[in-house]
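Supplementary Note 3. Input sequence used for the single-chain structure prediction.
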Amino acid sequence: MNDQQFEQNIRHICRDNREGLKNIYEDYCPLIFSVVSDILGNREDAEDVTSEFFIRLWDVADTYRPGKGHRAWMITIARNMAIDFVRRHRREVSAGEILDIRRENFCEEDSICRRLSLEQALMTLKKEERQVVNLKIMGELTFREIAKILKKPPGTVAWRYRTAMEKLKEVRL
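The predicted structure, written as C-alpha cells, is reproduced below.
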C-alpha cells in the first residue's frame, strides 16, 4: 500500500468506515505482528498486542499526518505498545529460560532443530540486529526511518544491518 492509499484508508476510518481499517489490517498485520513479536518473544502476547494495535489505530487515525511516512508511524505505535505491554507484565525470567522457551516453540523434533529455519537464524542475532533487519526487510523502511524509530544514529543502524547480514550468511540458510 502506498502513502496515498494509506491516507485514503485513514480518511475512511475517520468517517467511521470500517473498510479503511480492514484494508490496512490486510496489508500490515504481518508487519505489525513481526515488530511486536520481536519485542515480546511470545506468540500469544504478540497476537494480543497486534489486535490491540488495530483497535488503537481506529482511535488515533485522526492524529496521522500525511507525508511523514505511514509505515514508520505505525511501527512506532506498535513498538511503543509492545514496550508498554512488557512494562505492565514484567516478569523476572533469565535469558537461559527465554532461549529454552523459544527453542521449544521453534523445535518440535530434534531432526527439525538440526536445520535452522529463517526464524531460528534470526534468533541467533542480537536483539538490536534483529530489530533492524526486521524493520528494513519486513517494514521496507530506510536506515534513516529506522534510526528515527529506534532513536539511534543512521550509521549505527546501517552498521547493525551489515553485521546482521554477515552473521546470517555464516548460518547459510
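The chain has two domains: 1-91, 112-173. The chain has ten helices and no strands.
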